Structures are given as C-alpha cells and as structure tokens.
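Entry 14. Structure prediction run on the chain below.
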Amino acid sequence: MNISGSDIDVLKSVFYLGRATRKDIAKHAGLSTVSVTSVLGRLVEKGLIYVAGKATSGGRPSTIYRIEGDIGCTLGIFVGSDRSCIAAVNSAGSVLREQMFSLSLSELSGEHVSNILYQISLEARRFMESEWLKGQRMLAAGIAVPGMVDTERGIWLHGLQFSGIENVEISAALGKALGIPVVLEDPARCAAQLALSRIGSAEAGELVFLYLGSGVGAGIIVRGELYRGSRGLAGEIGHFIVDKGGARCSCGNVGCLETVVSVPAILQRFRIRLSEGVISSLQRIDPASITLEHIHDAAQSGDRLAQSTLFEIGDFLGDACSRLIQLYNPRTLIIGGPAGILGPYFREATLQTIRSQVIPEMLFDLHLDFISSESVDEALGSALIAQQWAWQHIGQLMRNH
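Output returned:
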C-alpha cells in the first residue's frame, strides 16, 4: 500500500488515542492541524479510518475519528497443559473468532518440542485459512506459554508442566511456519493486557494482574504499557517464599508461592486433606478427578473443609499481594487466571493479610478485584499484545502488503 510517513503518524495516533479529534491527533503526532486535516481526508478515502461522530465540550462540535476494523488482524495463541486456544482480533480490537484445541503429546519428552511446534503451527494455519478470517490481512501473532519466557529474544526458557522444554526459539520457529511475525509473552502479562483493554488506562492507572494458573506470575502495567524488565522476565513472583515449612518447588526452594496458590498446588492440597479422612462433601469425588469447580461448588454449599482450606490459601495470597503493593503501589490489583474462580473464598483472608502488612496510605485508593477468567482470555490477551507490536511496526507491515 502506498502510504506516507505522515499518514502513518496520524494513523498510529488515531489507534493509540482510541477516539480522536483533529486537535488530539495533531498534539499526539506532532503535526499542525492543517497537515492533519489533509492526512485525515486521505486516510478516510483509503478506508483506514472513519468518522465516528461528533464530540461537544460547550463550543463547536469536533469530528471524532476511529480506526477501521479491517486494516488487519492479529492472532493470539495460548498453550496449556489442560487446554489450548486460539483467537483473532481486528485492528479495532474486536474479537473476530476464538477456538479451543487440544495438544497430543508424545510419551517421549525429547519429542515434545517438535511435537508442540508442529501442532500449534497446524492449528494456527487452519484457523487463519478458515471462512471466518477469509480476506483478512494477517499482521502478527502472539503466543503465551506456561513456564518462563525471554520475551526480548522470543525464547521459551522452561516449560513448567511440559517436560523437554529448554531454550526453545519459539517465536522464530512459528514465525517461519506461519509467515508472519510472532511475539512471545507470559500468560500473566497477556491477562494484564486484556484487563487493561477492558478497564481502560485512565480508569485502571498503574495495574498489577496476579495470575494463578499452572504457574504463578504478575503482569505489570506502568503508564498504560506492559513492564517487562531488562529481558522480559519481570513479574516472576511465583518463587516468592511464603511458606518456609511448605512443599519443595520445581526451582529447588521450599515454600514458593507457586507451591501454594497455583492450580496444581491447590488441587494437591485438597487431595492431601481428603486422604487424611477429613469430613467433606468432596469425599464423594475421586481425588484424582477433583477440579477447581468441585472445590468452588463445595465452598459455595458451605463445606467447612473447602472454606477453611481456601481461607488458608488466601492468607498466603495476601502475603504476595502485600509485597506487590509495597513494590509497585498500583491503583488496580487484579487476581485472576484459572484459580480466580475461587476468589470469593480467598478474599477475606487476603484482605486481612494485606491490611496487617501494608501501611494504610498505600491502600487508600487501591482497587482490589478477584475475577473468574474465561478459557480464551490468555489467547485474547496475546492477540492484543501482538496488536500492540503490529502498531509499533504498522508502516512496514502495511507497505509489505
């Protein structure tokens, strides 16, 4: 597409501002209003932006511009040990399609890398070629995986519950297979990006998302943008020591947060309690088959084992939240991920611990929320992260098309 530098500047300004007037765009892009008016006309004619109405603030109404949804779309892929999903969002951030898929792993851990890459590539290509996305310009893809990732280099460092994963150059491998750039990210940061898109930067302020999944991590938003640290490893809080007399962690330490509040740790704690013969409605369920939903339903029905055990876990969770509040002083702290479904039964203990450990001044305007995540949230978040990457490179991507 034939598009100039000033066209790109204005287009990016409209995207980042969301709903933008000529004056807003001129200030953001560093251009005169006369130049912006000329560029806006070209962009509307090319079908890249559209007039979204008028805004009034007591004076003359101002025209509002927004990004067209069909400039291009981004994919988001989440790979988990119990579920995997893929989603697509258009350039305006609307969800185009979402779909669950299953991974079949080889019994040989040495084959897991090639096995996983093959299946993800196959599912993503099928998804991209589906009728739902026919005619869409594919700009980039994001992928979220469990364990530890180096987002700067696109390397999956460790696979947590996926054995055989060590220093896999997953961004490069998938990018080659799909023919589009692929951005690697941590599920916690994907969850944080999705939360930010739903709440809005102005409302959320500085935001921390504490993600409770197969592992535990924190997604940190500073001034409306993800904070990744020097190599994309920021937020690896799963190895905070919170229970010195607890279980040994995969990292070698004892009592890491991950050994208490991750999904596998929660399920294991309940299995141990049930094996001790504690009276509970959960005794009717095979311990090997117990799920978070079973635990939630038991707590909701007044089961004392479920409620007391979740209160105990909520105390450890409050310890971790206290440290995050003390370190980052966020306006918004969200606890979610798959174990977010248990939030109502963590809340009281979590809040008690936070109030006992954090000075009141840091809690004055803190908004703490527990959310129950949907099964496609990590994929949607990774699609939005890919979208952010695409808009940073939108000039090059559009010229290539």
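The mean pLDDT is 89.
Filed with the rest of this week's runs.
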